[in-house]
Amino acid sequence: MEVDTIVYPDAEALAEAACTFAAQEIEGALRDRGSAITILAGGSTPREAYSLLSREILAKKIPPSALVWLFGDERWVPENDPQSNERMAREVLLDRIHAPASTVISWGAGQGEPADCAARYAAKAQGAMQGHVADLVFLGIGADGHTASLFPDGTAHLTSGSCVEVGPNIPGFAAAVHSGTAKGWRLTLCPSVLNAARTVVFLVAGEEKAPALRRARAGDPTTPAAWIRGRRTVFLATRDALGPEAANFGREVRHA
Ligand code: 6PG
Question: Is the CB of 85 under 6 A from ligand 1?
Fold first, then answer.
């Protein structure tokens, strides 16, 4: 399992690098298989990287029909809500590349029971993946160390109907999470799905993330972002997110 950390001077440089990295991963999957499955993160950090990626996909004339898009997690709101991760991704990426409806796998959040929603998503997403693992997973890290909607204080309501504490071994494909930190319900893919991916890329910016990023990179078991390692994992971080450790890095140094 390969783990790299690459540091950038600021969020703009991070976004540019994330775009280049993602385009390379997607083109690699297209060469290998003729299609590419990407799991998108929500929040604010990935926004600029997605916007740049939309331009890259258009410029390279990558056929949008060959790209499948999933969401690693979603808030418990309809997709037209300003808080929706899907809405953000559509605004800056998916609508810009004219992604066919069949290629964007929506959680359909905010209606019915959260665990039922997770069960429907699991079925839809696995159908779209056609037995393949994700080629690329974007993830962010919260200041508390959460990633996707795997929160340290969460309870996972499984599609089987049972309920477990959020942890590295939540069974199944998707779950509904109730978390005080998240102030209510969230939807998330389970660690096993994220960990099966060919490449996981964490995008981390801001000094407030430094303690959580350090714990995530160190494999601290109390930090959900530490539970996620793809076949290859890359932390793309700004200098301030790396905190004092940044002194160990050059400008854009690859560091195992
Ligand atoms: C969400 C995300 C979440 C996010 C982190 C970091 O739904 O918000 O999926 O896991 O990646 O909270 O968010 P920022 O990028 O906004 O700091």
Answer: yes
* CA–CA dist 122, 228 (Å, integer): 19
Domain of 236 in residue numbering reads as 2-139+194-255
Specify the pTM: 0.96
Q: Please report, rounded to a whole number, the percentage of residues in the chain having pLDDT higher than 70.
A: 97
Residue 160 lies in a domain: no
- Is 165 a domain residue? no
| Contact 42 CB / ligand 1 (< 6 Å) | yes
Please work out whether the CB of residue 154 comes within 6 Å of at least one atom of ligand 1.
Answer: no
Nearest CA owner, ligand 1 atom 8: 43
Residue 68 belongs to domain with CATH number = 3.40.50.1360
Site of tokens 């204080």: 153
Average pLDDT of 113-128? 98
Task: Please tell me the total count of domains within the chain.
Answer: 1
* Pairwise CA distance, residues 189 & 134, whole Å: 12
Does the residue 151 lie in any domain?
Answer: no
- Ligand 1 within 6 A of 147 CB? yes
Q: Which two tokens stand for residue 238?
A: 């700004």
- What confidence category does residue 186 fall into, taking pLDDT thresholds of 50, 70 and 90? very high
